[in-house]
Design goal:
By secondary structure, this protein is mostly helical. The protein contains eleven helices and no strands.
Length: about 270
């Protein structure tokens, strides 16, 4: 006789989460019991707000821009389709860190020069490049980078909706905006929620790239702290713990939300 297959419930038990929880609890204990860990955490905690703020603002902007690009890519107008495809292919072909440096040190000064040229006609005082905060440049760069990836996610979700439903809504007299709002987007959203969640978690991690511009997020404060106290092991343990706590928590919340939406759609 062939061996009995294991129970799916046992296979699905998240042993990886148990192991990870043990590591996290050990690190939290070290932070509580070890003065070095406690001091490092107090230093890095100042950058958590910057990390979360950069992630939320950049991801929100990327979603809006990505949705606009997806709609343009599905437009009946050739120019809009080609412009959206050009943007997506160019941005996706450039590494995020290169795009970050380009926006910060090439595009931002060019934008300041263009603004000064336009406002110069009205006698407005010129805007200096150093008045353009590095934090804002970093947010713009991450928004541009992720908008190209999210555009493809939105495009796949929008095209997954059955054309028969769209034609039926059109026959009922719904205009383009009403069809998009009531028919297309609600169904597409259930399809694209998992990849949107994955990209949001990835944005949390990629927000650490802003440290190359000197933005005082968790990673930058970790580098500065380790360079000052030479406690690299303890410092980067805490850095990893902070990012792990944020990403794992977000992953579990998004997975729970996905299960609820799936259960609601099956009723």
């Amino acid at each position: 006789m062939s061996p009995r297959p294991p129970s799916p419930a046992k296979d699905d038990f998240p042993w990886w989460l148990v192991l990870l929880a043990g590591i996290v609890l050990w690190l939290f204990y070290e932070i509580w019991a070890n003065a070095v860990y406690s001091a490092v955490l107090q230093t890095l905690a100042k950058g958590i707000g910057i990390t979360i703020g950069v992630t939320l603002v950049a991801y929100t902007g990327a979603c809006l821009l990505g949705l606009g690009l997806a709609v343009a890519g599905l437009s009946r107008h050739l120019f809009l389709r080609q412009a959206a495809r050009f943007y997506v292919e160019v941005v996706r072909g450039v590494p995020i860190i290169v795009l970050l440096l380009y926006v910060a040190f090439a595009a931002a000064p060019a934008l300041v020069a263009a603004v000064n040229w336009l406002t110069g006609w009205f006698g407005i005082e010129p805007w200096r490049t150093r008045d353009f905060p590095l934090l804002a440049r970093a947010v713009i760069a991450l928004t541009i980078a992720y908008s190209a990836f999210l555009a493809e996610v939105f495009r796949a979700g929008l095209t997954s909706v059955d054309k028969g439903q769209i034609e039926a809504a059109q026959a009922l007299g719904l205009n383009g905006w009403q069809r998009f709002r009531h028919i297309v987007f609600p169904q597409a959203f259930r399809m694209i929620l998992p990849p949107l969640g994955n990209d949001f978690v990835a944005m949390v991690k990629d927000s650490s790239l802003v440290s190359v511009l000197g933005v005082t997020d968790v990673t930058q404060l970790g580098k500065v702290s380790a360079a000052g106290n030479f406690r690299y092991f303890e410092t980067y343990n805490v850095v990893a713990l902070i990012y792990l706590t944020m990403t794992i928590t977000l992953s579990l919340i998004l997975r729970r939300l996905e299960h609820r939406l799936r259960a609601r759609s099956e009723r």
